Amino acid sequence: MKVGAPAGVVVLAAAVLFLSTGCSSLGYYAQSVSGHLKLLGAARPVPEWLADASTPDPLKSRLELTQRIRDYAVTALQLPDNASYRRYADLQRSAAVWNVVAAPELSLKLETWCFPVVGCVAYRGYYHRDEANGYAEQMRARGLDAGVYGVPAYSTLGVLPGAYFADPLLNTFVQYPDGELARLIFHELSHQVAYASGDTVFNESFATAVERVGSARWLAEQGSVAAHTEFVAGESRRADFRALTTAYRDRLNALYASTASDDDKRRGKAELIAQLRTEHASLKAGAWQGYAGYDGWFARVNNSSFGVLSAYTELVPQFERLLHAEGGDLPRFYAEVRRLAALPMAERRPALQDVAR
């Protein structure tokens, strides 16, 4: 399961508060600033990596591909033309950051953390996995379902000035299959197009809609036959995963909203999660032909896991209908999304429903 998120937008809030806050959050803001600066400091322009004789040829090939994808993002998808994803860093680790998410024991509603500039978000990001694990334990001690997941890339929304501060390519995702690599780059760039402060579901659903249409167009126009075949297989598994998890999310929501006692809800929750894992095992052994990419998600699944999935997909159908209503014209689509993002949150969801009919 590969999930990207603009976890690093919290860096913007950290930069604002780092020198001014005297509260107990100082350590968190300090790790946000220092972690992001270390990440940027490890990055070099892609042409330097390509000209370096010590750069392995397979990495050069991947970096060249990223630049073709990046160019396509500008020319065909009208995504921002700036220094983002024109530099590369090897972080010597498997994730850019690790996000902590949490939800009540008998609810799928995610906890949120609020920051200046970016508003409230449904995760708390850390540059060191042990710190993320430690914070997740604090959430569990409060009786919450908590989880930690690695984030391969994040967006700083394109607001930090200069090429040095632009979001770089990272070793954490550069080896992804061609279609998945394109998806991720398109997703993260779309956060620079429109961003609604404090509305994770709106932001992530919009980015997911852009990544879907963008990767499909890129593969049709520039992808190899092998890349297209691999992508189609991945899309089929992803559709199976969405269908399975959505069904169980709905069943859990119904259970939690019922008049059953808390003890009965706990028993029902355990039974549903056991059934979910059994169905995953059947999919893996059957249609997925042993594909293990979702194993970690199902091993760790809890209420917070379902909450994260909702954030990325809940409004995607509405955004896809809106794009269709705009005749597939991406600039017009982006303009409408920016208009919606500027609305007060209470008005934004109904307005999206209206324009996406």
What can you see in these coordinates?
This protein is mostly helical and 357 residues long. Helices cover 57% and strands 8% of the residues. The chain has 14 helices and 8 strands. The strands form 3 sheets. Strands 1-2-8 form a 3-stranded mixed beta sheet. The protein has a 3-stranded antiparallel beta sheet with strand order 6-3-7. Strands 4-5 form a two-stranded antiparallel ribbon. Strand 4 and strand 5 (119-121) form a beta hairpin. Helix 6 (178-190) packs across helix 7, helix 7 (200-222) crosses helix 12 and helix 8 packs antiparallel against helix 9 (262-285). The relative contact order is 0.13.
